[in-house]
Amino acid sequence: MQKVAVVTDSCASIPEKLLAGLNIHTVAYYIHRGQEVLRDLVTIQRDEFIRWLMTATVLPTTASPGPGDYLSTYERLIEEEGAEEIISIHMTSKGSGAYQAAMAARPMLLEKFPKVRIDIIDTLNVSMCQGWMVIEAARMALAGLRLSAISEQVRNMIPIARMLQTADTLKYLYMGGRIGKAQRLLGTLLNVKPVVGMEDGVIVPLGVARSQKRAWQMMVDMVEAAVGKMGRIRISFVHAGAHEEIQKLKAMAEERLNCVESLIAELSPALMVHSGPGTTGLCYYPVSE
Fold first, then answer.
1. Is pLDDT of 176 > 80?
2. How far apart are CA 100 and CA 69, in angstroms?
3. What are phi and psi of 257, to 5 degrees?
């Protein structure tokens, strides 16, 4: 029986096959659309949501799970699956309250199950940068490693995981209040594609390009400059309803980068709210083995 349970949020956007195959447990974000309260990837799925989002004139709002959502998940893993240790991995605390909610659930859990060990980690990142940390943790848990070793590995990944992203517009980041330091690009976005990343848990501007293809080239250049031409990386190509476009970015990157593992992941609806339709990007981290 697996001793360490791995928990994360729906915003990690990990492909379903990996969630099932690696026994990863997700807690759904909330999406408030008018009077509707939707659960990310539970009561609303990607295709349906993005079709609606492309016609929306008012953005829905998103909310992180509450302490009770995490507590019930932790309790179920202990009672039903026999978990002795839990690692709970969350998106940046500077853009969401998920980490704080999980931390609030921790003492309530330990009051009921004082022998359980639980570590709650703020990745200071989002999307598949968070997702890669979860995947690595889950693989280690399945291999029989215990919480201390898994937590150390995840924390080592936090400063080296990188997200690069471009979108048709920064409107969705701006309207959703997640634009961070990239706000200064807003006045320059006539017929250009912004490239943004994340540093220390907040969105930052990295440049603009005159076309989507040039934005992709900029992103690949940035990865190559960071890891070197022979640098080995694991990489995920992320998108929001841009199935054909992401294949082009993937081909461009794999031609120039040493990708020891690559996959395609579509953002969850809760992230689509802020990135907007047509978003393409990549999340990677260097590997030494």
1. no
2. 12
3. -115, 155
How far apart CA 237 and CA 249 sit, in angstroms, is 8
Q: Is 216 left (phi over 0), alpha (psi -120 to 50) or beta?
A: alpha
Per-residue pLDDT of 38-66, as tens digits, reads 999 999 999 999 999 888 888 899 999 99
The predicted pLDDT at position 289 comes to 66
Which residues have CB under 8 Å from 193's CB, separation 6+? Answer: 166, 167, 168, 208, 209, 210, 211, 212, 214, 215
* pTM to 2 decimal places: 0.92
Instruction: Set out the domains of the chain in order of their start, with CATH numbers.
Output: 4-29+64-157 (3.40.50.10440), 162-286 (3.30.1180.10)
Q: Which strand ranges, in their side-by-side order, compose the sheet holding 4-9? A: 24-27, 4-9, 85-90, 117-122
| Closest to 62 measured CA to CA, from 217, 172, 213 | 172
| Residue in this structure with the two tokens 């302490």, named with its chain if needed | 67
**Parallel/antiparallel/unpaired status of strands 4-9 and 85-90:** parallel
Distance CA 197, CA 15 (A): 21
Strand duo 193-199 + 202-209: pairing: antiparallel
The confidence band for 167, taking pLDDT boundaries of 50, 70 and 90, is confident
